[in-house]
C-alpha cells in the first residue's frame, strides 16, 4: 500500500503541472492540442522513466512566475525520493530560462543548493548559498545551510562565525552547538601545539556552556600528554559536578592519574564514594578490584553479596548464578570472574533527541546532527 502511494506522488505532481498548463493555455487562448504530450508524460512516470517525463513536462509548460511552483514541486519530489540527479537537472533547466524574475531565480537557486548538499557537492552548494545570503529574504536560510556545510567540511572557524551570526539573526542562543564547535576548533590546533589558541577556544566553550564535559576531557588529555597528572586529575574530577553520567565513561583515565601520582588511598576513597551513588557495572568492577587489594577477600566478598541482594536484576546476578565452585578458593575465583566479566561489558550511548544508539561516544549525533545530545546508557 505504501509503495503504491509513493508511486502516485509523481502523478500528483504531474497533475498539478497539468492544471497549471491548462491555466496557461487558457490565458493565451491556445487550443489544447497537447493532451497527448501530457498523458505521454504520465505514462513515463508510471513506467518509472522520470527522465523522459521531465523532458515532456518541461516542453509542455513554459516557465513563468505563475507556473514555477509546479516545477519546483516536482524537483523537491525527486530530491526527497533520493533521485538527486534528476532534481539537479530539472532545477538547472529552470535557472537557464531567461524570462524568470530575480525572486524566482533566487527560489530556484535555493532548491539547487539543497540538491547539491544532498548529492554531497558541498563546494557548489556553498557558492550558491553565499550568493543567497546577500538577499534579505533568503539570508536566514542561507546562513543555516552554510553553517551545516562548514560543519560537514570541518571548517570549524567558519562554522563558529556562522553559528554566532545565526544566533544574532534569530535571537536564539545555541550553547551546545557553539561550545562543541569551539572544542572542535581547539582540537584543530592541538597537533600544532599552539597552546594559547587551544586554551582560548576551550575557555570560550566553557564560558558558553559551563556544563560542557568535553572541555575538561580535552584539557585533561592535553595535560596527560604533558605528564601533568595532577592538573589532569583536577580537570577530570570537575565532571562530577557537570554530569556524573559521564564519569564511568572516563573512569580509567581518572584512575590512571591517581596511579601516576601514587595516590592509592585517594583512588580508593574516590571509588568508594562513587559506587555509592552510581550503579554502573564499570564503577562496581573498578571498586571491587581495589577493595580486594586494600581490604582483602572477606570485605570484597561481603560487598559483592550486598550488591547482589540490592540489585538482583543486574548483569552480575546472572554471572553469580552460573559460577561453579570446584575448590577452596572459590570465593576469590568468583570475585575475579565478576571483575573479568565487567571488563567485557561495552558502554553504550544513546541520543536523547532521536534515540540513535552506538557503542562509540559521538559528541555530534550521526543521525540527527545535533551536538551534545548523546548520553551514556548505564550498564
Automatic annotation (TrEMBL):
GO terms for molecular function: iron ion binding. It comes from the Bacteria. Keywords: Cell inner membrane, Cell membrane, Iron, Membrane, Metal-binding, Repeat, TPR repeat, Transmembrane, Transmembrane helix. Fe cation binds at residues 351, 354, 365, 368. It is a single-pass membrane protein. Gene3D superfamilies: Tetratricopeptide repeat domain. It is found in: Cell inner membrane. It holds the Pfam family TPR_7. Residues 21-379 are cytoplasmic. Belongs to the LapB family. HAMAP family: LPS_assembly_LapB. Modulates cellular lipopolysaccharide (LPS) levels by regulating LpxC, which is involved in lipid A biosynthesis. May act by modulating the proteolytic activity of FtsH towards LpxC. May also coordinate assembly of proteins involved in LPS synthesis at the plasma membrane. This is Lipopolysaccharide assembly protein B.
Amino acid at each position: 500500500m505504501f509503495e503504491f502511494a509513493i508511486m502516485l506522488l509523481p502523478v500528483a505532481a504531474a497533475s498539478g503541472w497539468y492544471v497549471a498548463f491548462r491555466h496557461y493555455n487558457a490565458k493565451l487562448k491556445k487550443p489544447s492540442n497537447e493532451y497527448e504530450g501530457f498523458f505521454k508524460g504520465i505514462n513515463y512516470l508510471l513506467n518509472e522513466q522520470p527522465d523522459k517525463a521531465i523532458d515532456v513536462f518541461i516542453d509542455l509548460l513554459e516557465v513563468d512566475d505563475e507556473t514555477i511552483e509546479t516545477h519546483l514541486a516536482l524537483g523537491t519530489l525527486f530530491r526527497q525520493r533520493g533521485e538527486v540527479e534528476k532534481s539537479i537537472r530539472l532545477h538547472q533547466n529552470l535557472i537557464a530560462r531567461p524570462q524568470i524574475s530575480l525572486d524566482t531565480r533566487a527560489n530556484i537557486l535555493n532548491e539547487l543548493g539543497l540538491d547539491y548538499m544532498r548529492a554531497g557537492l558541498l563546494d557548489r552548494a556553498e557558492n550558491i548559498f553565499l550568493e543567497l545570503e546577500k538577499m534579505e529574504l533568503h539570508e536566514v536560510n542561507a546562513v543555516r545551510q552554510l553553517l551545516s556545510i562548514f560543519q560537514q567540511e570541518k571548517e570549524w572557524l567558519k562554522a563558529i562565525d556562522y553559528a554566532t551570526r545565526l544566533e544574532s539573526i534569530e535571537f536564539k542562543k545555541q550553547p551546545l552547538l557553539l561550545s562543541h564547535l569551539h572544542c572542535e576548533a581547539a582540537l584543530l590546533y592541538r597537533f600544532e601545539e599552539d597552546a594559547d589558541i587551544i586554551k582560548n577556544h576551550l575557555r570560550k566553550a566553557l564560558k558558553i556552556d559551563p556544563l560542557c564535559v568535553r572541555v575538561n576531557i580535552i584539557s585533561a588529555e592535553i595535560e596527560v600528554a604533558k605528564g601533568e597528572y595532577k592538573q589532569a586529575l583536577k580537570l577530570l574530577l570537575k565532571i562530577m559536578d557537570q554530569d556524573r553520567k559521564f564519569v564511568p565513561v572516563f573512569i580509567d583515565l581518572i584512575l590512571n592519574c591517581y596511579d601516576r601520582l601514587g595516590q592509592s588511598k585517594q583512588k580508593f576513597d574516590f571509588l568508594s564514594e562513587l559506587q555509592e551513588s552510581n550503579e554502573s557495572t564499570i564503577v562496581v568492577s573498578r571498586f571491587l578490584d581495589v577493595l580486594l587489594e586494600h581490604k582483602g577477600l572477606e570485605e570484597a566478598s561481603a560487598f559483592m553479596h550486598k550488591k547482589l541482594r540490592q540489585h538482583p536484576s543486574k548483569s552480575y546476578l546472572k554471572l553469580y548464578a552460573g559460577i561453579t565452585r570446584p575448590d577452596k578458593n572459590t570465593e576469590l575465583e568468583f570475585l575475579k570472574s565478576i571483575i573479568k566479566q565487567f571488563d567485557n561489558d561495552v558502554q553504550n550511548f544513546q541520543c536523547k533527541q532521536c534515540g540513535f544508539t552506538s557503542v562509540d561516544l559521538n559528541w555530534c549525533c550521526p543521525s540527527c546532527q545535533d551536538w551534545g545530545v548523546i548520553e551514556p546508557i548505564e550498564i
